[in-house]
Known about the structure:
By secondary structure, the protein is α/β, with parallel strands linked by helices. The protein is built from ten helices and ten strands. The chain has a six-stranded mixed sheet with strand order 6-7-8-3-9-10, with helices on both faces. The chain has a four-stranded antiparallel sheet with strand order 2-1-4-5, with helices on one face.
Amino acid sequence: MDPVSTTTPPASFAPSLEVSGLAYAYPDGHQALFGVDLSIERGERVALLGPNGAGKTTLVLHLNGILEAGAGSVAVAGLPVAKENLAEIRRKVGIVFQDPDDQLFMPTVREDVAFGPAAAGLRGAELTERVTEALERVGMAGFADRPPHHLSFGQRRRVAVATVLAMRPEILVLDEPSSNLDPASRRELADILRSLDVTVLMVTHDLPYALELCPRSVVLSGGVLVADGGTQELLCDEELMRSHRLELPFGFDPRSVSLPV
Ligand SMILES: Nc1ncnc2c1ncn2[C@@H]1O[C@H](COP(=O)(O)OP(=O)(O)OP(=O)(O)O)[C@@H](O)[C@H]1O
């Protein structure tokens, strides 16, 4: 048997995300991650929970190679996150930042959504189709010719999601997707995210939102992955919640929510 085939699964069978023994210290010496292991299968929606300073952003910045692992490895759909693969990795890992204005800078919504695919070489009808599809998936097709700065915050967040979906990413990473959204916009975004056929990793302090959207959660605390399991099960674990400064809103009962699939 070919020895390579026993250690390197074909990309189509590899998990969307495989983080192994990831450790990282910032240049000032602060150790932010200590040997994190995390595997996410295709199509899973996973919430990344943890108190302030846990290392969540540090972990996310490793997924598309903004930070380089001190030790351990990260692979996206079987492709190692390494300098020689960065262009491909950045097409596969779509990050939606907390502030949509960090991602929207073109005169119109259409141009913002077209920016990534055009930079990747798409032109003409293929590019138009990609933009239309992404805007339809977030319910913003009717806004293509509007300047992003004329849209509401919730609409801008949806366009930011479309800019990332237009790249047809392997994994969609969202940083606090529910922040600053009113209840209706929050629900609409949840419906959109549930409808997508893509792997989702969502960083959030909004525990009810994690429960609503993600069947699975992982808890990072002090740079260590301290829990990995069903979101409802984790949120019902009072000792886990208390010891990692995770708090549910007053009166919220995680058992009362009908679970996502
Ligand atoms: N550029 C940096 N240099 C040194 N230390 C840093 C740097 N950025 C973050 N840290 C430290 O690394 C640790 C992890 O930070 P990180 O931003 O990853 O946490 P987080 O879980 O995303 O927090 P939050 O929920 O507050 O966004 C913290 O102790 C933080 O102070």
